[in-house]
Design goal:
- This protein is of the alpha/beta class.
- The protein has helices at 6-13, 17-32, 111-128, 145-157, 171-181, 197-203, 239-242, 252-255, 261-269, 279-283, 305-321, and strands at residues 2-4, 36-37, 42-45, 53-62, 69-78, 90-97, 104-109, 138-141, 163-167, 190-193, 206-209, 228-231, 246-249, 275-278, 297-300, 326-327.
- The strands form two sheets. Strands 1, 2, 3, 4, 5, 6, 7 and 16 form an eight-stranded mixed sheet that branches. Strands 10-9-8-11-12-15-13-14 form an eight-stranded parallel sheet, with helices on both faces.
- α2 (17-32) crosses α3 (111-128), α2 packs across α11 (305-321) and α3 (111-128) crosses α4 (145-157).
- The two termini are 14 Å apart.
- The mean pLDDT is 94.
């Protein structure tokens, strides 16, 4: 068993934003081509808590030859109360299994893998939908780990310039976020803390929303027509607004469940016709989004386990090539040197 720690994952991913985006791009395409197995995520909600949950995301992707690929699971906990204790909200591991024997061979700390794949999917969507960062500026609603990574990955697609406007329910956290964000944006970029989330939506045509909201609260009236809203936290936009926009998801069946804004929109209309396309179909050229006058585009990725596996496999390969991680021989019965997955 190869075990790769948080610090090692961080070092192995450092400066590899483009490679991660490419891995996520490939995983989306393979999934759209039917080369994946992707059961619904399992939500373990703990009784007597304030929304704390642990989610299991099993997945499998087939490689180019139909036989290679990877299988495994991400097990991620979301405990918003951790923030008050100075701990990250999310903690996670990924287990990768052998495609030949089914035996688990790699255990990776996955909070950075999870944040990276989410941010990479956002940056990929911005590029694919023609809304990469430009001189009109970029907005971020929610100043946590996810949006910081989104900013990093957006900068890997195109320079973040002109202005960066952020909002957080904690103004001090927003100010601290901007201080940390300064090295990621182009020189001369205006850095502003907005008084409301609506002010962010009004300021820029590209906005990422990543909060811990559990019930919708955000209207899109302030958005300029043609804007792209990266709705990463899935439960911020009120259903009445989201059904009036152009909607792109990662997988319809996954995104329209668990009381997401899209799920509530389906309940409102009784159908899913307000969803225009999946990002996989856009990448493959099967569909396109033609923005109607007065409307905006909303990208709502549920967060597919195949993306976690794609990024975890990238980290695993880098770890093996660089002699990183700790190998535990004999972790499994009959396992002496654990060499079958080394490459």
């Amino acid at each position: 068993m190869l075990i790769v720690s948080y610090d090692e994952v961080r070092e192995l991913l450092a400066g590899r934003e483009t490679e991660v985006i490419d891995a996520v791009d490939r995983a989306y395409r393979w999934h759209a081509e039917g080369r994946s197995t992707l059961p619904h995520s399992s939500f373990l909600r703990l009784p007597g808590t304030r929304g704390e949950r642990i989610i299991g995301l099993p997945a499998h992707l087939s490689g180019d030859d139909g036989d290679s690929g990877y299988a495994g699971i991400k097990w991620i906990a979301s405990f918003p109360g951790n923030l008050a204790a100075g701990l990250p909200r999310a903690s996670a591991v990924v287990v990768l299994n052998s495609m030949r024997t089914g035996r688990p061979h790699t255990l990776l700390e996955a909070s950075l893998i999870s944040a990276g794949r989410t941010a990479a999917s956002a940056a990929l969507a911005a590029r694919t939908l023609g809304r990469a960062p430009d001189g009109d500026g970029t907005g971020l609603i929610g100043c946590g780990v996810i949006n910081f990574e989104v900013l990093r990955y957006l900068a890997a697609v195109a320079p973040v310039c002109g202005a960066l406007t952020v909002f957080d329910v904690d103004p001090a956290r927003a100010e601290a976020f901007l201080r940390r964000a300064a090295p990621l944006v182009a020189p001369g970029t205006r850095l502003t803390v907005a008084p409301t989330p609506e002010a962010v939506l009004a300021a820029h045509p590209l906005v990422s929303v990543a909060t811990t909201a559990t019930t919708p609260h955000l209207r899109l009236d302030a958005c300029a027509p043609g804007s792209l809203v990266l709705h990463l936290s899935l439960r911020d936009i009120v259903a009445e607004d989201i059904v009036r926009q152009h909607n792109v998801v990662d997988d319809v069946d996954h995104a329209v469940r668990e009381s997401t804004s899209l799920h509530l929109g389906e309940g409102l209309l009784g159908h899913r016709d307000f969803i225009d396309a999946t990002i996989g179909d856009l990448l493959l050229g099967r569909k396109s989004v033609h923005v109607a006058p007065g409307r905006v585009v909303v990208f709502s990725p549920f967060g597919l386990g195949v993306l976690d596996l794609a990024v975890a496999e990238l980290v695993r390969a880098r770890a093996v090539a660089g002699g990183r991680g700790v190998t535990v021989p004999g972790f499994l019965p009959g396992d002496t040197d654990n060499t079958e997955e080394k490459s």
